[in-house]
Write a structure and sequence with these properties.
The protein is an all-alpha fold and 538 residues long. It is built from 20 helices and 2 strands. It folds into 2 domains: 186 residues, Up-down Bundle (Growth Hormone, Chain: A), CATH 1.20.1250.20; 200 residues, Growth Hormone, Chain: A (Up-down Bundle), CATH 1.20.1250.20. InterPro entries: MFS (IPR011701), MFS_dom (IPR020846), MFS_trans_sf (IPR036259), Proton-linked_MCT (IPR050327).
């Protein structure tokens, strides 16, 4: 695309801004070019209507205000995804306060994490109605109110509702829209942006244990929950800067024909017609906000969803039981909390280099194998805790766990974006989150029962090692089989490489009869005949 009165940000993409009249004119010229490239009619003010297509392209900045959105996403992830691990600091106090068993106490972080994921469909509806910015801010209010109300609870059941359901739902409303809007702001640099945003979890793991331990020492668990509720309200501030990309503007539709309603419309006014409309609305909502079509028709998404769901049964459990495991072996509370901070520091140090590394062209199409390899290392690292409970051994464990966790966190959303098109990403993430929520809900309580019956925390880490490692092997084998199957099918049906009109040609393709790589399902769907990538504003 030729630049007309436009401003590029360091040669990396069109700069989204609306502060001055000059940039408004630049935006209008850019929209005119997009319309011309897609056979659009353009009129003054940037309005265009595509012929033969219902949606027009929305150019992602890949820079500019996107960097502000990236920083805000990092902070939101720090306050949401990093927070449940902080509950482990108050684990013993909650047991003593409410005279609860390990299984009963572990329901608190379990419900919080499960609702964080299970609220995905409700979050998708909110994003569609009010946008990502308002949804993130609403999540900040819910999580802050939930934690503040937790400081006044009188039973463990009340804590399930306040800290578990209300706070977890607030985390969901803040976390998922932040990840979604980041995917709209970055296309070419999406692996880098996703990896950098995942450092927010590391930042939360690094700082929240220090803050939680300090508040626990000064104010006890009730005062700590009250202050942490005020801290979570900062999600409203970070959500306020997540302004949406300007959607393509269309000309108005023709005026509706005036006249008597058709016979079918008259029938729909009856009770049976209303029931049919309600049922149709429910089915349409499920199809739109829960990607069942991807689960049935996209084998890569199906395999990924199954593997991640099984992985979550044991992936987050060590973070819940690490501090109780250390304190049960006569380690000081502050020293045990420092283990979580070391885990966060490792993530902060390791994730930025991985973000740059995974953005290299060589990793295109190989993200899933790097992800599965890191997941295998993460599962095997849990067995280190079985060798001893001294501080040096546990430091070695959190370093190994942190390195593998960094890769898993950096590539989780990148892999999902690779296997589904961006327009289906919110619903695909919503369905995956609901599936994860089941195993996230039952994982900590099941391991809590294991601790209550055996009296040993080491069995928790053995179980987690087995679950996570087996999910990694499943993902490796399944995607290798799918790649081999697609490669064989491509060679069989296209013995000589011919251009495919349904996919844009690769930038580095060369003439001749040779096969390079098999694109993922997401790459197929994202392709368009003219090589443009359509990003819909959720």
């Amino acid at each position: 695309m030729t630049q007309r009165n436009g401003t590029k940000s360091s040669g990396d993409g069109w700069l989204y801004a609306d502060a001055t009249k000059a940039l408004e004119l630049a935006k209008g010229a850019e929209q005119q070019e997009v319309c011309e490239a897609h056979d659009c009619e353009f009129e003054e003010g940037g309005r265009g209507q595509s012929r033969g297509a219902e949606a027009a392209a929305v150019t992602a900045p890949d820079g500019g205000w996107g960097w502000v959105v990236l920083v805000a996403t990092i902070m939101v992830l720090a306050l949401t995804l990093g927070f449940p691990s902080c509950v482990g600091i108050f684990y013993t106090d909650l047991q003593n306060e409410f005279h609860a068993t390990n299984s009963e106490t572990s329901w608190v972080p379990s419900i919080m994490t499960s609702v964080l994921h299970a609220g995905g469909p409700f979050c998708s509806v909110l994003v569609e109605k009010v946008g990502c910015r308002v949804t993130v801010m609403l999540g900040g209010v819910l999580s802050g109110v939930g934690m503040a109300a937790s400081s006044f609870t009188r039973s463990i059941a009340e804590l399930y509702v306040t800290a578990g359901v209300i706070t977890g739902l607030g985390f969901c409303f803040s976390f998922q829209p932040a990840v979604t809007i980041l995917g709209h702001y970055f296309v070419r640099r999406r692996p880098f942006a996703n990896a950098m945003s995942s450092t927010g979890t590391a930042l939360g793991l690094c700082t929240l244990p220090f803050l939680g331990n300090y508040l626990h020492t000064e104010f006890g668990w009730r005062g700590s929950f009250l202050v942490l509720g005020a801290v979570l309200l900062n999600c409203c501030v970070f959500g306020a800067v997540m302004r949406p990309l300007p959607p393509a503007k269309h000309r108005g539709q023709p005026l509706m024909k005036r006249g008597p309603p058709p016979p079918d419309q008259e029938k729909e006014r009856t009770g049976k017609g209303r029931c049919r409309r309600v049922w149709s609305f429910v089915l349409a909502s499920l199809k739109k906000h829960m990607a069942f079509d991807q689960l049935c028709n996209n084998p890569r998404y199906c395999v990924f969803a199954i593997g991640i769901t099984w992985m979550m049964l044991g992936f987050v459990v060590p973070l819940v039981f690490l501090v109780p495991y250390a304190t049960a072996h006569n380690m000081e509370q502050s020293q045990a909390a420092f283990l979580l901070s070391i885990l966060g520091i490792v993530n902060i140090i390791v994730r930025p280099p991985f973000a740059i590394l995974f953005n290299m062209p060589w990793f295109k199409g190989r993200h899933i194998y790097v992800f599965a390899s890191a997941l295998l290392l993460n599962g095997l690292s849990n067995s280190i805790c079985c060798t001893g409970s001294s501080f040096p051994i546990l430091v070695t464990y959190v370093i190994m766990y942190g390195i593998s966790m960094s890769v898993v966190g950096s590539l989780m959303f990148t892999v999902l974006m690779d296997i589904v098109e961006m327009s289906r990403f919110p619903s695909a993430l919503g369905l995956l989150a609901v599936m994860e929520s089941v195993t996230l809900l039952i994982g900590p309580p099941l391991t809590g029962v294991l601790v209550d019956n055996t009296g040993e925390y080491s069995y928790v880490f053995i179980a987690c090692s087995t679950i996570v490692a087996s999910s990694a092997l499943f993902l490796m084998a399944s995607f290798f089989y799918l790649d081999k199957k697609e490669r064989a099918a491509a060679l069989q049906h296209q013995p000589c490489a011919q251009p495919d009109p349904s996919r844009p040609a690769a930038a580095d393709s060369s003439p001749g009869c040779r096969y390079s790589s098999v694109p993922t399902e997401g790459d197929r769907n994202k392709g368009s005949p003219n090589g443009a990538e359509y990003i819909t504003n959720v």
